[in-house]
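Escalated from tier 1: magnesium ion holo job.
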Amino acid sequence: MIGDNKTEVMPMQSVSEPYPNLLLIDDDPDSRMLLAHLLKDECRVREAVDGEAGLALIQAQIDEGDGCNIDLVLMDLVMPGIGGIEALRQLKALPLCSDIPVIVLSSEQHEEALIEAFAAGAHDYITKPVRKVNLQARVGAAIRLKREMDLRLQREQELAEANGKLKFLAQHDSLTGCANRRYFEDRLSQEWLRMAREGKSLALVMVDIDDFKAYNDHFGHQEGDICLYFIAKVIQSITRRPADLAVRWGGEEFMLLLPDTDIRAACIVADQLLVAIRKRALPHPKARAAPIVTVSLGVASIVVGDNFVPDNLVAAADHALYQAKDGGRNRLYFNA
Ligand SMILES: [Mg+2]
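Tier 2 regenerated the structure:
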């Protein structure tokens, strides 16, 4: 019946690894008791009396939201109800469960069912009556495989996160966290095409800190960087919709890209920005417009169509900014 009890079986996990969870699905109570006994030192064994009960147990875990923590399933093939093959199919179709190895338990006379079981996604099989050495070796191998797959998935996840961070760094300015100029160019082209398809307006607010050279000369470049950071935070706080983009254009120049925004709405946003920066009231004794850090804003909006290219929008905002500077700074001008 059972293999030699004296045979030594290597422990299947190191101390640092979590204890594996095994789900044993078998309608025969004697068989369950025997298998659970043989595996009690290797795994935490949970038992289910048939396929439906086993699937319900896994589904309940998934519903709790923690994912499925089963590392291995031992599935009897011949059971009342949906039977082992159908239970296996349903298990493999569950979200988060396709990677759980399943070892099917079959008796000698049901060997033809094994072909079906492997087609349904079985990882291995053990014939009943079960031999201890055979059982422990195969369960151990399946659990090691599951551990390796989990580790690989975890590494893939870490790699994806690292790639995400790299992508962010490549698209954003490190000092302020605003989008950088290259990312702005990409987004401008994308939004231009999107607004063209939808026949909508694309707006641009060009922002320039007034007398910033005098600020740097007075306070030093380190304080200058802190000022840029604070102003960037105010600009970012103005972008409220997902497609709005705050950009560091270069030096003390920033941009707000506002898709689906006409000139009137863009001027409202620009005015909010003007007021918010005045309220921030960073002291600037050398400024000509006021004793605080202020900005000049050039606002433009274009109903995107065949008559224009993105550079027209940038040039229009730039021209308005020039007028704002010329008009005495700490103000906005617009170009419709
Ligand atoms: Mg059975």
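The pocket of magnesium ion is lined by residues 26-28, 76, 78-79 (CB under 6 Å).
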